């Protein structure tokens, strides 16, 4: 058992809330340790529709969450511009909605609630809505324009982790918390085990923050306290191209399949909401019934989805907090919950931050860090609302590309889109470095090398979350082995390439088999033939 140096605060959980908390704490001068049992953005952070919420969806029933969303929406546009796509959004009313109480009278109530929460909501003519978004259902009878958008959750989480490290934070991925170091009623640190090497260690700090999402339930139990977590599973579908360029919402009470979000090169329809047992949270899969439901509801928003290839299905678990018997969790507030377990449970040195959503992560981190600073008698103030994340110091892909390279290649433009101004750190020093490894997402060998060197990449799934390798139309059919070889060499472990590729292929397959019919089935059969036929030996193939 190795004993390591002390920290001011230990943050458990490498999702967006933990990453944001580590960033805020480190920017306030605290010595921070961030611990994640898998890779960053592995849980709910990487399993949502990537909606840059205006807050409009919550305006009627949850004004507090709506106000939080619009304020954070405006902040993220400034501090995380390289992660945000300002698509704008539409809330549409269909003829059949009037029969369920969500006709044009509800649209009026909706607009009034939005305006009251500080959300810009403009009623527009249905014909103008069709001109704004040609893919929308042409039978709509009402439309409201709101400041929705899309945000890349992987990019956002990684940028927060990078900034935390730039401010001195230590980050441990693939490291699981196995217990707490306790002295009477005080938590003084954590016991951990490295999931790759099996090595065990202890780390000490006067304050530990539980930011583990739905798994925070288990972390709290280890500390001897209980949080009334509500595991609400949400299933989503990814379509093979960007069907719509504007976020399309159904103007009604939140329900299954009522949001269609464009992001990067794809479109995502979400979500369902079903309570699941805690023991299933690590093994989410999408059922045929959920696929049918999402496809049916999605076609009501955008009829062309009926003839669009589905790339894959996936599911995540929302970390809701409530003692609620609602089988869907739809009635539970998306509000933020910060618990000081000393005042609540008599356990000193332990804080939990949960609830909320991707859109309000920065505010959640600020609240948690305020609580940490109070315990440490620190008067340092939050700076995260005004300080750009690494990569967003200069906005605009064209501006970054032109400044760095003049005449940029497709791979360089893509790197600028993903990394913003940090693309300057990617070394395109040879023709080989400029070659595309993943042609669907324009990922170069140089960007893969950069991700391994600077972004805590160990596996192909880690690489996917940093660069979008394998997330495009072919789902990795033509790039898995090339990317795995590049990753293995960059790690200094060339012999691991085949295993890296096989593990990644297994993960891609899990998401494809739930939608294995029609064009998707043909793609799956083609992928099998490609991998039975062999693999390319060089990057130039």
Helix content: 25-40%
The unreliable regions are 536-541
Major beta sheet summary: 9 strands, mixed
Quick one: overall form?
Answer: globular
Strand runs, count: 24
Contiguous helical run count? 17
Strand content: 15-25%
First-last Cα distance: 48 Å
Estimate the mean pLDDT confidence.
92
Structural class, by secondary structure, is: alpha+beta
Radius of gyration: 23 Å
Can you tell me about this structure?
- Residues 536-541 have low confidence and may be disordered.
- The longest helix is centred in the N-terminal third of the chain and has 17 residues, at 63-79.
- The chain contains 17 helices and 24 strands.
- The chain is globular, with a radius of gyration of 23 Å.
- The strands form 5 sheets. Strands 6, 7, 8, 15, 16, 17, 18, 19 and 20 form a 9-stranded mixed beta sheet that branches. It has a 6-stranded mixed beta sheet with strand order 10-3-2-14-22-21, with helices on both faces.
- Helix 10 (397-405) crosses helix 11 and helix 13 (445-454) crosses helix 15.
- The termini are far apart.
- The chain is of the alpha+beta class and 541 residues long.
């Amino acid at each position: 058992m190795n004993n390591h140096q002390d920290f001011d605060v230990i943050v458990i959980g490498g999702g967006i809330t933990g990453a944001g908390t580590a960033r805020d704490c480190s920017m306030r001068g605290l010595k921070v340790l961030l611990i994640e049992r898998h890779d960053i953005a592995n849980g709910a952070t990487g399993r949502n529709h990537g909606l840059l919420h205006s807050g409009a969806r919550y305006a009627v029933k949850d004004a507090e969450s709506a106000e939080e969303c619009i304020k954070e929406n405006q902040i993220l546009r400034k501090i995380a511009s390289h992660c945000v796509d300002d698509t704008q959004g539409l809330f549409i009313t269909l003829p059949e909605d009037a029969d369920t109480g969500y006709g044009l009278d509800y649209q009026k109530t909706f607009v009034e609630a939005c305006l009251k929460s500080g959300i810009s909501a403009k009623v527009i003519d249905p014909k103008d809505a069709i001109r704004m978004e040609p893919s929308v259902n042409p039978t709509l009878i009402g439309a409201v324009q709101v400041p929705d958008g899309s945000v890349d959750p992987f990019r956002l989480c990684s940028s927060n982790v990078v900034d935390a490290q730039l401010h001195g934070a230590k980050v441990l991925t693939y490291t699981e918390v196995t217990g707490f170091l306790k002295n009477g009623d005080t938590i003084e640190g954590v016991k951990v085990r490295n999931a790759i090497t099996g090595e065990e260690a202890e780390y000490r700090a006067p304050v530990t923050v539980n930011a583990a999402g739905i798994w925070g339930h288990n972390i709290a139990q280890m500390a001897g306290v209980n949080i009334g977590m509500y595991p609400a599973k949400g299933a989503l579908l990814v379509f093979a191209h960007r069907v719509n360029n504007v976020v399309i919402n159904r103007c009604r009470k939140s329900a299954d399949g009522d949001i269609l979000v464009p992001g990067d090169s794809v479109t995502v329809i979400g979500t369902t909401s079903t309570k699941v047992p805690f023991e299933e949270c690590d093994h989410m899969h999408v059922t045929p019934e959920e696929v049918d439901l999402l496809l049916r509801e999605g076609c009501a928003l955008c009829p062309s989805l009926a003839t669009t290839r589905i790339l894959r299905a996936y599911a995540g678990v929302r970390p809701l907090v409530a003692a609620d018997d609602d089988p869907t969790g739809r009635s539970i507030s998306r509000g933020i919950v910060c618990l000081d377990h000393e005042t609540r449970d008599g356990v000193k040195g332990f804080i939990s931050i949960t609830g909320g959503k991707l859109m309000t992560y920065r505010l959640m981190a600020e609240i948690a860090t305020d609580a940490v600073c109070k315990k440490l008698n620190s008067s340092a103030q939050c700076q995260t609302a005004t300080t750009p994340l690494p990569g967003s110091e200069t906005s605009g892909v064209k501006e970054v590309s032109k400044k760095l390279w003049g005449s940029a290649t497709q791979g360089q433009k893509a790197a600028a889109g993903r990394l913003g101004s940090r693309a300057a750190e990617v070394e395109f020093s040879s023709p080989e470095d400029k070659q595309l490894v993943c042609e669907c997402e324009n990922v170069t060998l140089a960007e893969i090398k950069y991700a391994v060197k600077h972004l805590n990449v160990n596996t192909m799934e880690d690489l996917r979350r940093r660069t979008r390798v394998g997330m495009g139309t072919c789902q990795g059919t033509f790039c898995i082995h090339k990317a795995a070889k590049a990753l293995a060499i960059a790690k200094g472990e060339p012999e691991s390439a085949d295993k890296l590729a096989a593990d990644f292929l297994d993960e891609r397959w899990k998401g494809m088999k739930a939608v294995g019919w029609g064009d998707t089935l043909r793609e799956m059969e083609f992928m099998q033939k490609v991998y039975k036929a062999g693999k390319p030996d060089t990057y130039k193939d």
